[in-house]
Amino acid sequence: MNTATPRAAWRTFAIVAAVHCLVVMNDTVVFVALPSIGRMLGLAPADLGWVMNAYLLSLGGFLLVGGRLADRFGRRRVLIAGLIGMSLASALAALAWTGPVLIGARAAQGIAGALVAPAAMSAIADIFRDTSERAKATGLLGGVSGIAGSVGALAGAGLTELGWRATFWFCVPTAALLAALVRRHLPDRRGDCALPDMLAATAFTGGVSLILLTITGIGIRPAAVTALTATGGVAALAAAWHRQRTARDPLLPQALTRSASTVRGIGLNAVLGFGLFGGFLIVTLFLQVLHGLDPLPAAAWMLPISGAMFAGSLTAVRLLAHMPPQRVLRGALTVQAIGLGCWAVATHADAGMPGYGVAGALWGLGVGASLASAFVWATRDVPRPAQGAAAGAVNTALQVGGAAGVAVLGWTASASGGVSDSGVVQAIAGAAALMVVGIAVTGPRWSARPVTIPPELATAPAAETFDRIVDAGVRLDNPKARQEWPACELNC
């Protein structure tokens, strides 16, 4: 460890975890306030989802930028800048006088969060040098993310009783306090990575936004408008892909894309985000619209999910000490799929609130374990200088997947002209099917195969670059490769 004592290291980790929780809570704290926001600001149901998606998309679209900035200028500097920006954007959201102003403020919140999230997650590499301690902290942080989402929804319900603006005011002093704690306790280190590609990040965010706007506009907006947004989205994503392939310093370091575990871990985080944020939206619609519960009682019904997420994350941390993360993740996704399936059956059979609570708790158990193990799987083979970029990629997948889940599952639940039992069942069944796809991706056929290290690299010094090793065909998740080059670094 690079701190004076283990106690000091875990104290610093607690601050980093609190910062990360604030970013996640800003995702979900407004869920139960959405009906009130719609009434007060005159937002139509089709537009109300953009109060969520403006945050999710700007956060997801610029996380890679935030990760590269953290690698270049240091985690502490970027964390402080992001927390101050988040505090100011939250104040603007609380003062919003129209729907577009609120949506714009939410986008600003997301950009600030994009500075905070990858810097917080990658700071673990600065706090802990011991591999086992770092893995334990990484697993805990992934699990805490799921818990923070449920706590955010519950806190949002309580704050909504004071008025929907209170859901944004709470972030103003909280972010300022955390900035002061980060300045006092977090180590300050700077790297020499290149500046991020802002053009690629902007094209990526715009492309995903237009695609989701297309999905939510089907059957609502004119066909010509839908075709235009779809074409624009595809063109923007193609431009972002071209920049990634041809830029001298691409937004996502190309060496990261050559690690099988990193690529699949990032993809699995997109699947988890789809189910997590889309699932929370369905829970909100199910409880408040179909069952007529007020915000606070509705949030209280989410407590079993929160408790199960916490239990799932702790279970995953223990299991990760004894088995590969993909095996833990496979089991967690199976539990998620079973929980979602039970929820769909309970809704179809009108099993009552206790039945929904049991199914939701089972789903939450799988979510907590999945988030912890997926993050470990995606980042375990990434050298320390590139942890910021890797954490940004993981969070990008989680948030963009979440935005897609909010758009697609919300549209599915209300496709018949309003939220209905049949629409909810179809949305839940779709999420369960996606978890099954995730199980297939983590299956044994994707496991790492033994690799023979080329003779010319077998005697290479420990400082041999990451890029050359990968170019030679050595898999990062191969134990022999890690043993031969324990100090290999990534030229980011």
TrEMBL record:
Location within or outside the cell: Cell membrane
One example GO MF annotation: transmembrane transporter activity
The keyword Cell membrane is annotated on this UniProt entry: yes
Membrane topology reported for the UniProt record: Multi-pass membrane protein
Entry GO CC: plasma membrane
Organism superkingdom: Bacteria
UniProt entry tagged with the keyword Transmembrane: yes
Keywords: Cell membrane, Membrane, Transmembrane, Transmembrane helix, Transport
Every Major facilitator superfamily (MFS) profile domain range: 12-447
SUPFAM superfamilies: MFS general substrate transporter (SSF103473)
Transmembrane segments: 12-36, 48-66, 78-98, 110-128, 140-160, 166-186, 198-218, 224-242, 263-287, 299-321, 328-346, 358-378, 390-411, 423-441
Protein name in UniProt: Putative drug resistance transporter
Annotated organism of origin: Gordonia amarae NBRC 15530
Lineage: Bacteria, Bacillati, Actinomycetota, Actinomycetes, Mycobacteriales
